[in-house]
Amino acid sequence: MTEEELPWQSSAEVGELVLGTIAGPAQAPELLLQCVLSSSFYTSVDVAVAESSVRAVSVDGAPAYQLDARITFEHPRLRTTGSVLRIVVVDADVDGYWFSAVPQERDDLVAAVEEAGAGLRLED
Q: Mind listing the domains of the chain with CATH numbers?
C-alpha cells in the first residue's frame, strides 16, 4: 500500500451550541452539516451529500436529534472517496452537540466513533 500524498483525517468533537433564533434543535443538525461542508474542513475537495437522514434520539435522557450522512468526493491525491459524518444536537438547558467525520473506508474508525457517540453523557 502506498502512502497518501494528502492523508485524510478523522475528527470528533463535542461542545456547547448557541442556536439563538436561527433554528431549533430539530433543525440544527442539517444547518450544522451545511456549515461543515462549506467550512475549511472540506475546502480541498468538492463534496456531494450521498446520504443524509435525521432522527430523534435520546442522550442521557435528554431529547436529541441525530444526523447521519455520507459525503463523497474525488481528489487525485487521496485514496478515500468520502466521509461518514454524524451530528447530534442535544436539547437541554444548555444545548450541546457531537460531531464526527471519518473516512468511509475505515470501518474500524466508524465503529469507534459509533461506540464513543453511544456513550455520550450530559454534565452540569
A: 11-118 (3.40.1000.10)
